[in-house]
Amino acid sequence: MQKIRVLVANRPRLMKDLVLATIGDQPDIEVVGETQDEAEITELVERTRPDYLIIALENPEVRPGLSGFLLGRYPEMKILALAAERNSGIFYWAFVDIRSMPVESSEQGILGVLRSKPELVGI
Amino acid sequence: MSDSENVQVFILAENRLLREALTRILGKKNDIRVVGASAFSPDVVAQISSASPDVLLSDSAAVALSDLRLISEVRAAIPGLKVVMIGMDADPETFLRAVRDGIVGFVLKDASAMEVAAAVRCVANHEAVCPPSLCMALFERVASQNQNAHPASFVIRHNLGLTRREQQLVQMISHGLTNKEIASQLNLSEQTVKNHIHRMLRKLGAADRLGAVELCRLPGAVA
What we know:
The complex is a heterodimer.
Chain A lengths: L3 E6 L3 H11 L5 E6 L3 H11 L3 E5 L8 H9 L4 E5 L5 E8 L1 E8 L2 H8 L3 H4 L2
Parallel strand pairs in A: 1-2, 1-3, 3-4
Antiparallel strand pairs in A: 4-5, 5-6
Chain B lengths: L6 E6 L3 H12 L4 E7 L5 H8 L3 E5 H6 L4 H8 L4 E6 L4 H10 L3 E4 L4 H12 L7 H16 L1 H9 L6 H11 L4 H8 L3 H15 L4 H9 L6
Parallel strand pairs in B: 1-2, 1-3, 3-4, 4-5
Helix pairs in contact in B: 2-4, 9-11, 9-12, 10-11
C-alpha cells in the first residue's frame, strides 16, 4: 500500500511536535519532511512532493497566502492549516479553483483529513 | 509526589490536539502519568481535584476562560499542587499575573514537547521553570517593588490613606475585573472608575493597577 506523504511545516514548535506525535506512528502515513521556517516550505514541497502539507493558521478568517501560491503550482497537493490557540483548522485543495472546509484541530480531525480523498467526492 | 515513581499530571487545554497529543507524549514517559485531561468547564476545579494530580499543566486560554481565577481556585482546592502554564505569547503581564496566582512553571508555545515534559519534572522536584525573556520581567518587577519598599512602609502605617471606595476598587482589581466590569458592579460610569483608580495610584505611588494591588496585599495595608 502506498503511504500518504506528509510535509509538516506548522508553527509554533509545540504544535508541530504534537502533529508529528499524532501522525508519526501511523502505519499508512509517512512524514517526508518538517520545518518551522516558512521561507523553506516552497523548496521542501518542490523537493519532497508531498500529498499533504500541514501549515500554521494565523487567522481562520484569512486564507494563508502561501496556500494559494502552492495550490496553483502543485494542484495535486492538499493543505491542512492548523490554529495553535483554537480548535480550528482549515483544509484546502485545488478543484478547478481552491476549495476549503473547516477541520477540528484534533487527532481525529487531522487523521481524517489526511486519509480523505476530496477530489472523489467533489467537496 | 503521590507516587514515588510517577509524577501525576492533569492536562487542561482548550485546544483538543494539545490535550490529546500531550497526553500521548507524556504518557510514554516512564516517570509521568497523565491522570486526566479536559477543556475548561465550570466544574473543572472539581474534576481536577478528584484526579488529585501533582502537577496541573494548563494552557493560558483555559485560564483566561476562567476569568483568571482558575489557578488560585485550584491551588486552594489541592494543597501542594504545582501549576505549569503554557503561554501562547511572551506577554510579561500575563506571566506576572500567573506567578502572583501561584504558578511555578511557564513554558512558551515555542517550547518543544520534550521541554514541556522537562518542565513537568522540574516543578515536581520543587524547581521553577521560566523562559529567560520572562525571567527579566520578573527580576525587574521584584526590583521595582524593592525600590518602593520605603514609601510603602510609610503609607502602610497610615493605612495607605485609601478611602473605603478605593479599598473596594483594589479588591475588585485584584480579582481581575476591568474598569467596565467594576463600573457595572458599582453602578458607576467607567470614567468615574478611571478617576478613582487614577487618584488611588497617585496616593499609593504605584506605577499601575497591579502595583497598587501588590502594595495593598502587604500585611496591614488596608483596614
